[in-house]
Amino acid sequence: MKPMGGSEILYLNMLKHVGSEWSDRINLILSFCFHEQIDPNKINVVWQHLNTNEEICVGMKDPTFVEAIDYFIFVSHWQFNKFKQEFNVPAYKSIVLRNAVEPIPFVEKSKTGKLKLVYTSTPWRGLDVILKSLMILDRDDVELDVFSSTKIYGENFVKITQGQFDWLFDHARTQKNVNFHEYQPNDIVRACVQQAHIFPYPSTFEETSCLSAIEAATAGCQILTTNLGALPETCNDWATYVPHGPNREVLAERFAIELEKTINNYWNEDNQQQLIAQSHHYHNYWSWERRANEWSNFFNTITK
Q1: Is residue 49 located within the same domain as residue 164?
Q2: Which residues contact 202 (CB under 8 A, 6 or more apart)?
C-alpha cells in the first residue's frame, strides 16, 4: 500500500463516509493555494490542513486568490485565526470543520510487563525530545514503540531529506527500551496504539490539529504533549501539557519530569476512569460518523 499523509487519509475518509455527489458543483481544493486550482464554473472551496508558513500556501498572499475562493474550511479555530491574521481571510467565508478519525476501539490495557509508550509522528516533530526524555528517566518499567519515517511524504521527499535523520533513526534503533519500527501501514500502527498505555508527544511543530493524538485518545491512551499550535484545542482538558520552548534540551528535561509523573500515576483508579471517559468522548465527537453529517450539511447548504 502506498504511504499516505494525513491530508490524503482525511480526503479518502471523507469520500468514503460522505460520497462524491457534491463534486459536480463544488471544486474542493486540498490545501494548495494557486490560481490554477480555481474552477470558475464551480463553487470553490479550500480545505486547508496546513499552517500559514507552508510553501504551498504562498498563494494566500494574493488577495485576488482569497477573493476568488467561496469558502475556506479550517480544521481548528487556532488555524483559522492564523490565516485570518496573516492573509486577511474573511470570517464570513471561513468554516471550522474539525478533523475526524476511524476510532480505535478501547481495550483494557495490560497490567503485566512494562508500560507501553508510542510515538507515531514524523522525526522532526519531537522524536529527539522523547528519546532524550527517556534517557533522562532511565527506567526499565517502560518501553517506547516508535513509528516514524519520511516515507509518508513520497519518494521525492525521501530523496530530498536523505541522510538528514539517519542519526536520529540510529539512535532510536540502539536506545534501550525503544522499539524502532520506521514506517508501517496504518493498521499496524493502530494495533500498537490500541495496546499502548501512554501517548507521549513532545511536539516541536505547530500542529493545525493532530490525527495521531486523536487516534490515541480514542484508544484510551493517556496523552502528554506540549502547548504548541492547536494541540490544546485538539486535546482539550484530557491531556497534560508541557510548555514548549525553543531549547530542545530544556524541553526534554521538562517533558521527562511530567512523563515520570504520568507513569507513576497511570494506574490510579481516578485516572483510569478518566481515560475511559476520554475514549468515549473522542469516539463520539471525533469520529467520521459524526463529522460526515457536518460535511453533508455544509455541502447541502452551499449548493442550495
Answers
A1: no
A2: 126, 129, 130, 133, 224, 225, 226, 242, 251, 252, 255
pLDDT in tens, 202-214: 999 999 999 999 9
Note the pLDDT of residue 153. Answer: 64
Q: Are residues 90 and 158 in the same domain?
A: no
> How many domains does the chain fold into?
2
Segment 257-286 shows an average pLDDT of 98
Q: 49, 100 in Cβ contact below 8 A?
A: no
Q: Alpha carbon 154 to chain centroid distance?
A: 18
| Model pTM above 0.85 | yes
Mutual angle of helices 127-137 and 248-265, in 10-degree steps: 60
Is residue 120 included in any domain, yes or no? Answer: yes
CATH number at residue 162: 3.40.50.2000
**Residue 157: per-residue pLDDT:** 62
Q: Where do runs of H (alpha helix) occur along the chain? A: 6-18, 63-68, 77-87, 127-137, 155-160, 166-174, 186-195, 211-218, 231-235, 248-265, 269-285, 288-302
Q: What is the C-alpha to C-alpha distance for residues 70 and 252, in angstroms, rounded to an integer?
A: 44
Amino acid at 184: Q
Range in 79-93, 158-172, 173-187, 270-284 with the lowest mean pLDDT: 158-172
The cell numbers describing 80, all together, are 483559522
